[in-house]
Amino acid sequence: MRVRQLEIESFRGITEGRIVFQQHTLLVGGNNIGKSTVCEALELVLGPERLYRRPVIDEHDFSHGTYLGDEGDPREIRVRAVLTDLSDEQLRRFFQHLRRWDDEELSFIDEEPDSVQSADDDGTVWALPIIFVGRYDREEDDFIGETFFDHPLPELDELDEDQRASLGSGRAQFSRAHKRLCGFIFLRALRTGSRALSLQRGSLLDTILRLGGEGAAEMWQDALGALQDLDPAIGEIEQLKVIREDIRTRLGKFVNLAPGEDSAAFFASDLTREHLREVVRLFVATQPSNHSVPFAKQGTGSINLLVFALLTIIADLKQDQSVIFVMEEPEIALPPHTQRRVTKYVVQQMGQSIVTSHSPYIIEQFDPENVVILSRDGDTFSGAPIDTTSVKPKTYRTQRRQFAEAILSRAVLVLEGQTEMVAVHAVSSALEQFRGDYSHVDLTGVTLFNAGNDREVPRYAPIFKSLGKRVYGIRDKLKAPDAADATENIKSFDEFWESPETGIEQILVKQVPTRVMRSFLDEVVQRDDYPTSYPYVAEQVAEDDLAALAVKVLKARKGDAFGFGYTGTLIEQCQTEDELPAFIRDALLTINEQLQDEPELILDDAQSATGSAEPEE
């Protein structure tokens, strides 16, 4: 089973939204775009343990915090999910609630004309529609929520008034047992608090116990009996024994105690199941100390890996059942190699994985067709897989890391080489210093993308445009005209600049003052890596010869090994904005102005980053 589509109404910052999922899906978008809200919405509709939380929802879960309408009637949170790829057991259990689904058009065929004739077409499958409904209950002064089958819908004229006014309007309940059959697991970014690794209801350890088979009831009974029969008893500790006798003597003067020494006693707990669930903790010993301590005393990375290890146990216990695994920002406190390892396991072992991340090490593990870009238009929210027709598999594989970083950005600036990358970064740093109203490309969310050469720059414009990004391009003047496809691709750029020179070095020396070139040569000639084939003695080089010499030095030390040291040093000699190379400076100012006109999206559902987490202790 997997989630194919999710529709959200009036939940947190989303008034209306729709997300399409693949078998494995990476959700990407800016901070507070709504990634956590999507994960929470999935748990509302599918999470079997969510109903253990009381209340299931609260005031802040409603869009704009409005849970009552203008007339005082309750507003409803609605989360609809379409589940496909059902197992034989799921098909049998849910058969009366299934509908035929066109997986290409992403719609139920009974909503289309000639639906009967297309019921067995390729791409048409059985799907299970379910819905979560939540609202404020005025009579109870509380918030309620439940999941229901969303097919078949009851005939309203066959329902009485109470049924029509009920939470699901007469729909059949999609129970906790039904949800467990779906195999939904949610690993929150902050799920390393005390609850996740305790034995409280709905925790990971509790889930493992429940999936492991029968005997949980006997386990609690045996544990409680063992605590009661401790030998020696807790109360036999000498200091507690003295206190116990004092209490029994003094209390006996006012209360008719039972006879014997056991009329007052100390035990290790309240001797109830619920109290044991609260107090039992997992202890772990790690090197180099080798001393067992409560898991919460371990490092954050170790705790996260411990949580993940428990999730793999749950996946194994489900055996042939398909697991829908939702994982939020697994990169927190994990080094890059562990991020890759965790992500590979999830993609390979889980029936469906839905992951949010800001880490390129995780993003690069997903093929482009599995990347879902989240976007907003006011309160309307959407998420759909990127258009892979613009991304050739070979291109994506060879540029996987750069693509991963670009996916996370607000905009992409495509450049032709490493020297251009360094020059743009250095000029942006200088502008940040010289202008109070300018933000560095790093701070405005612009990714610099190295296309490899000037002819390759245009091909990336439609690729990044398909990701919903602003796309900019800069390259040198060509010595021969572009091919027809390149000319067409250039139209996809939001802005495109072609240099008046055939090389970046010419731009750097022709568009800076003579003083800057002189200062640059004075600086680099002292370096051990200065190219000795181009000697420089300040008194012996005329002003008219500085540009030619500076070009030769820059070209001799071009490339990854020297590029930043030489190109960056030249830009650093500029002391005012006017001294910066105008071609690069003006392009960066244009980009900065356009991005400032479209500020990065910040939503009003700040609770999506905090309210979704389980409480820490």
From TrEMBL:
<protein>
    <submittedName>
        <fullName>DUF2813 domain-containing protein</fullName>
    </submittedName>
</protein>
<dbReference type="Pfam" id="PF20469">
    <property type="entry name" value="OLD-like_TOPRIM"/>
</dbReference>
<dbReference type="InterPro" id="IPR027417">
    <property type="entry name" value="P-loop_NTPase"/>
</dbReference>
<dbReference type="Pfam" id="PF13175">
    <property type="entry name" value="AAA_15"/>
</dbReference>
<dbReference type="InterPro" id="IPR041685">
    <property type="entry name" value="AAA_GajA/Old/RecF-like"/>
</dbReference>
<dbReference type="InterPro" id="IPR034139">
    <property type="entry name" value="TOPRIM_OLD"/>
</dbReference>
<feature type="domain" description="OLD protein-like TOPRIM">
    <location>
        <begin position="408"/>
        <end position="476"/>
    </location>
</feature>
<dbReference type="InterPro" id="IPR051396">
    <property type="entry name" value="Bact_Antivir_Def_Nuclease"/>
</dbReference>
<feature type="domain" description="Endonuclease GajA/Old nuclease/RecF-like AAA">
    <location>
        <begin position="1"/>
        <end position="49"/>
    </location>
</feature>
<feature type="domain" description="Endonuclease GajA/Old nuclease/RecF-like AAA">
    <location>
        <begin position="269"/>
        <end position="363"/>
    </location>
</feature>
